[in-house]
């Protein structure tokens, strides 16, 4: 079934009140729903009520206290129809579900003996029959009954109302959420969990009780998450004027979770990977992710919960906007420049390939078969970039005024992207209709730019041409409004002043590209400047710039915009890597200029730059990044060889400087996860990666591993040993030592799987296959599957794309195995093959066979079928 945006219409009924009673038991949980149902004004009196279900068994049904006769309704596992409903009535439904055997992890399930729920997008219908769509807003009262010894803790949305003992060792709790909400935000947690408690006083002086619940014994690992929560609450007050609205805010960490976390009203449920951390078990990246995801889910309280989505086509209304908000939060808490570079790297690594492949879709899609497959980098990350562009175009103040109006106008509503754009049009008086194409049109726009300077007329001209490549089912594209931030940079690095400009609107350092071609003429420019483009990554586009290498080197050393400066160096590296790739295919040995390797050394040692920034600059484009930039006829082995050659060349050219700097960066004070300390670790660890290729490198890495005082350094050293010195006694010893030390900690073992799954080279297929039998691995746990299989398929170019196709064969088999339990996780895994058409013909044919093998799997789920069919189309 295909769902279409244009088919939206409100349901004939609304459900103003929802009462739920759960009598919990692992294999037979009784759910009693009491729904107040009203026919909407204007709906036909003859309209039946059709509720959604998914695999449900109906045990009892009554209308206004009267049991219905079989002729009055129609119940299947997936639908309940009440043939002649009154205009307003109370519907009682009883269903029975089995949380313990729910391995899809949607609806009510058990994770390590804890009952928990995941209802977004359409999981609520696995609990009871309902109008399971986001425009049905209802006030929920939830009563939970459980055996006291099995589940001493009983949580749901909203505020606690009452609790007490029941007969035979049972107890109960009642929760009431005064804010009307869609069913996807419903949540329940019951079990035996440890609590970390704190409180927060909001800007209007209300005290909110905060709770983070974790597996008993892990309370000591929730401190960072709690701290991040309090900072998020404060930041949303300052940055957006948004105050929290309930008496309690609870977060629960569970170890089986399909995604990162979920913003259920007042009761966020998290993948424990994004809650638990200390220096011993978590890396700096983990600390940063926890902070970002805690913030993200908290920010949803306003962007998602108070204002929700009319339908799932509007998913980006809450996700793109909330990602933008969490990006801004992290930028304010950490280093803005470093954060921006990291965001762009992520966008390019995940969203660009989506946009450039068979799964491309607009930020606001118009069609879907399975909504779970649209929780994508396009909806989230590109969706965030679109919000950022609105701010760039309007300026921060007007943007904030627009957000204020959005909250004021749409609070309590299920809104659309049109509603969102309208508030910005209203506060700014601007016409955003061309800009709106960013929501409606898929594909990454490209700008081709060339420049000329005429010293006689003192004119500097940029010739800019836009194009949007065709994407599936959108062959003809319309011209977009692209805000291109830029700078003209003089020989001393200073901004170049100009008299006037014509050919495009230029405001506050931004060229507004709206036509196919612009000739942007700057007058009064005496000397040819270097031009810095897409500063701060003002638009999510690709650039083809005719730029002299001299200018590129100059900008890499002098651009005042930190992002553009990083970009200039990254472009130089990419160009060199692509040239090396071609040399290798032509049978030659790649050579790299001393100017390039020297610049790497200069950046590494530039004390005016933050260590984290230097670390990002030294992290060469990944193999997948290079493949994407080459675009077609990809041979992953040649890319790998080219990249390794550049790493070695940079290491050799800077051996002394890198060695000294590595020594100077050794940890001195006590451990702190703050951004500055993390930056120094990042720089030292990337230096280790280079130095490990030189004589004595393996000993250096082994020492780094042995003397590490935190997981960041330990995991970095283990990666260097396993990847660069695979099979060495040092690598074998370190892997075994790590396993012995952390064998009982599933999250840390995830890192151990990850490191091994990404060892380059053909034999990793066999390693990974063998590791699926390891005691710490489980096909039923999404985190373990992602660590081992996800890493192998998305972060191991040389092994996954093994020329004989064995990587793909193993992968197809595994995807089908995961799918039997968890279709969502399997479908997400399967997207690893989305760029198969850009491979060289031999691998392409083998990848296609693997896709067909998946497509021919028995009883394929809607989730996986949708992905493979679109990928093959
Ligand atoms: N709304 C959640 C978040 O981004 C993601 C939940 C997605 N879950 C799913 N089953 N598709 O914060
Ligand atoms: Zn979200």
UniProtKB/TrEMBL annotation:
Q: What cofactor is this protein dependent on? A: Zn(2+)
Question: Which Gene3D superfamilies does its entry note?
Answer: 2.60.40.1840, 3.30.2010.30, Neutral Protease Domain 2 (1.10.390.10), Peptidase M1, alanyl aminopeptidase, C-terminal domain (1.25.50.10), tricorn interacting facor f3 domain (2.60.40.1730)
Residue ranges of the Aminopeptidase N-like N-terminal domain? 84-185
Broadest EC class?
A: hydrolase
Per the database entry, which stretches of residues form a coiled coil? Answer: none
Catalysed reaction, written as an equation: Release of an N-terminal amino acid, Xaa-|-Yaa- from a peptide, amide or arylamide. Xaa is preferably Ala, but may be most amino acids including Pro (slow action). When a terminal hydrophobic residue is followed by a prolyl residue, the two may be released as an intact Xaa-Pro dipeptide
Give the protein family: Belongs to the peptidase M1 family.
Q: What is the protein name stated in its UniProt record?
A: Aminopeptidase N
- Give the species: Mesorhizobium neociceri
């Amino acid at each position: 079934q295909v769902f279409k945006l244009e088919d939206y219409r409100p349901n004939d009924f609304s459900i103003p009140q929802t009462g739920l009673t759960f009598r919990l038991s692992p294999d037979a949980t009784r759910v009693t729903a009491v729904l107040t149902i009203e026919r909407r004004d204007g709906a036909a009196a003859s309209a039946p009520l059709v509720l959604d279900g998914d695999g449900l068994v109906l045990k009892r049904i009554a209308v206004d206290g009267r049991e219905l006769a079989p002729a009055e309704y129609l119940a299947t596992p997936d639908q309940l129809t009440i043939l002649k409903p009154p205009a307003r009535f109370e519907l009682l439904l009883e269903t029975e579900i089995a949380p313990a055997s729910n391995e899809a992890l949607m609806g009510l399930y058990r994770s390590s003996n804890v009952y928990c729920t995941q209802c977004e997008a359409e999981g609520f219908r696995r609990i009871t029959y309902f109008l399971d769509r986001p425009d049905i807003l209802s006030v929920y009262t939830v009563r939970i009954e459980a055996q006291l010894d099995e589940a001493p803790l009983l949580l749901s949305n909203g505020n606690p109302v009452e609790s007490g003992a029941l007969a035979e060792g049972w107890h109960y709790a009642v929760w009431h959420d005064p804010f009307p909400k869609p069913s996807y935000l419903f949540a329940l947690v019951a079990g035996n969990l440890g609590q970390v408690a704190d409180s927060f006083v909001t800007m209007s002086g209300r005290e909110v009780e905060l709770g983070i619940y974790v597996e008993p014994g892990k309370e000591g690992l929730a401190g960072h998450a709690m701290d991040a929560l309090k900072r998020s609450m404060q930041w949303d007050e300052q940055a957006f004027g948004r105050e929290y609205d309930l008496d309690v805010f609870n977060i629960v960490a569970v170890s089986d979770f399909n995604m990162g976390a979920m913003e259920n009203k007042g009761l966020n449920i998290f993948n424990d990977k994004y809650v638990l951390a200390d220096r011993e078990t978590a890396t700096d990246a983990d600390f940063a992710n926890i902070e970002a995801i805690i913030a993200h889910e908290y920010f949803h309280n306003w962007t998602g919960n108070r204002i929700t989505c009319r339908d799932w086509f509007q998913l980006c209304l809450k996700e793109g906007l909330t990602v933008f908000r969490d990006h801004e939060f992290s930028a304010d808490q950490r280093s803005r420049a470093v954060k921006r570079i990291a965001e762009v790297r992520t966008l390019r690594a995940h969203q660009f390939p989506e946009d450039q492949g068979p799964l491309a879709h607009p930020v606001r899609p118009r069609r879907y078969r399975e909504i779970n497959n649209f929780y994508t980098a396009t909806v989230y990350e590109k969706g965030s970039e679109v919000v950022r562009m609105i701010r760039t175009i309007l300026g921060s103040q007007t943007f904030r005024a627009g957000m204020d109006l959005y909250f004021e106008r749409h609070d309590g509503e299920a809104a659309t992207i049109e509603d969102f754009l309208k508030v910005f049009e209203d506060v700014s008086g601007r016409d955003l209709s061309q800009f709106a194409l960013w929501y409606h049109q898929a594909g990454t726009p490209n700008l081709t730019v060339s420049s000329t300077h005429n010293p006689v007329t003192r004119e500097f001209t940029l010739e800019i041409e836009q194009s949007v490549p065709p994407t599936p089912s959108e062959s003809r594209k319309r011209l977009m409004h692209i805000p291109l931030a830029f700078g003209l940079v003089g020989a001393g690095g200073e901004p170049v002043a100009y008299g006037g400009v014509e050919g495009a609107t230029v405001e506050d350092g931004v060229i507004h590209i709206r036509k196919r071609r612009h000739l942007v003429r700057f007058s009064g420019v005496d000397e040819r400047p270097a031009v810095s483009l897409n500063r701060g990554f003002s638009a999510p586009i690709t650039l083809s710039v005719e730029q002299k290498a001299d200018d590129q080197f100059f900008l890499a050393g002098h651009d005042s915009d930190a992002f553009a400066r990083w970009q200039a160096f990254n472009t130089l590296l990419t160009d060199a890597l692509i040239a090396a790739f071609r040399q290798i295919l032509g049978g030659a040995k790649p050579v790299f200029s001393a100017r390039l390797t020297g610049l790497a050394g200069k950046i590494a040692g530039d004390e005016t730059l933050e260590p984290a920034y230097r670390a990002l600059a030294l992290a060469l484009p990944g193999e997948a990044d290079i493949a994407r930039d080459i675009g077609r006829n990809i041979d992953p082995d040649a890319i790998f060889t080219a990249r390794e050659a550049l790493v070695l060349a940079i290491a050799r050219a800077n051996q002394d400087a890198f060695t000294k700097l590595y020594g100077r960066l050794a940890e001195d004070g006590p451990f702190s996860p703050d951004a500055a300390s993390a930056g120094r670790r990042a720089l030292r660890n990337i230096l280790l990666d280079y130095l490990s290729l030189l004589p004595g490198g393996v000993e250096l890495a082994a020492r780094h591993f042995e003397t590490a005082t935190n997981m960041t350094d330990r995991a970095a050293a283990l990666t260097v040993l396993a990847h660069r010195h695979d099979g060495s006694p040092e690598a074998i010893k370190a892997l075994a030592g790590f396993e012995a030390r952390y064998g009982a900690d599933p999250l840390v073992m995830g890192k151990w799987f990850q490191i091994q799954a990404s060892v380059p080279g053909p034999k990793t297929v066999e390693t990974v296959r063998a590791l699926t039998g390891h005691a710490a691995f489980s096909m039923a746990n999404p985190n373990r599957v992602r660590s081992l299989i996800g890493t192998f398929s998305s972060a191991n170019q040389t092994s996954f794309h093994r020329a004989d196709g064995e990587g793909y064969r193993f992968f197809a088999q595994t995807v089908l195995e995961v799918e039997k339990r968890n279709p969502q996780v399997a479908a997400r895994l399967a997207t690893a093959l989305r760029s198969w058409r850009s491979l060289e013909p031999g691998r392409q044919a083998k990848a296609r066979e693997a896709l067909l093998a998946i497509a021919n799997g028995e009883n394929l789920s809607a989730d996986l079928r949708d992905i493979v069919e679109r990928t093959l189309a």
